[in-house]
Amino acid sequence: MAGALDGLRVIEMAGLGPCPLAGQLLADHGAEVIVIDRQSRPVDFADVNRRGKTSIALNLKNLSALGIAKDLIATADILIEGFRPGVMEKLGLGPSDLPESLIYGRMTGWGQHGPLAQSAGHDLNYLAITGALGAMGQKDRPPMVPLNFIGDYGGGTMFLLFGVLMALYERSQSGKGQVIDAAMVDGVPAMMGLMHQMRGAQQWSDAREDNMLDGGAPFYRCYECADGKYISVGALEPQFFAQLVKRAGLPEGHCADQNDKSNWADRRAQYAKVFAQKTRDEWAAIFEGSDACAAPVLHWSEVEAHPHNAERGTFVRVNDVIQARPAPRMGRTPGLEPAPPGAMGDDTEAILGELGLNEQDLIQLRDKGALT
Length: 372
What we know:
By secondary structure, this protein is an alpha/beta fold. It has 13 helices and eleven strands. The chain has helices spanning 18-28, 63-73, 87-91, 123-130, 149-174, 184-190, 193-200, 238-248, 264-275, 280-287, 307-312, 348-354, 359-368; strands spanning 9-13, 32-37, 53-57, 78-81, 103-108, 179-183, 220-224, 230-234, 294-296, 315-318, 321-324.
């Protein structure tokens, strides 16, 4: 069965992080994603972001290879790249070098312009200047270093995809492509509307671990259990907090002043002592089937076997590499079943054949150093 994006051709310039994930998610739902790689290399079965893609290896410093890249890009709907501003232009593959109908997705941390646009950076740095990083962690410790889901993949990949799919819809009306400047320093703040709202309403302080959603609330944090593992507690609403109180054996009177911040520090310590009395799995059993909003904090090795994940088939193993099945789940056009990734450059000959090149052409291109 074809995916929702069947017939869409995407060129992905090889890189790291947000762009490869964006390409994978498009491929998961049926898009034809061709990666322009710098070098042919053996297959890496652990490279999940390459699943569903094909690859051509080109030496873009070679004029013949550059011509091939332009011809290939001209057949595509979308191009995505994650280089520093100006790199594609120096290669001769900037937006003005390519067809006007092309949707050109540019993924960076700092954006295409601004004082930091040409500076190196990583997820942590982009989070730092948006205010997001300063809000994470314990109040008496440095800001917590989160995994790169927030900047790279939340503020990066997802906004790149949002941008190119918006442009795809707009092109159906105008017939023209456009450039998408997807910057993590824009995407992360765009996800912070609730925090901006709460700060504007004087309901969020700038101190870490002092707010409803940053671990300050005793009913919205993780607690260590008797076996050194953890239970997550997220009982925000009064009716859910009441179930947490009942099942955990906490004082019933706490329901009356749940949101009184003057009690939070003492209650965090009190709740920590309670949750330390049983193992994580004992607590999970106590809360099972309830609306107490408590769930065991699982290790990577445990997620596949969790009953909810298992029943939904959230995870799959491909060549014994655990990975997620396509998301979101579509009713009529489900995503494609994950397959092993291909090798870099593995499809060079087939792709060149589609462009009309024959075996003699391939020999000449290899002799010129165009193919890598």
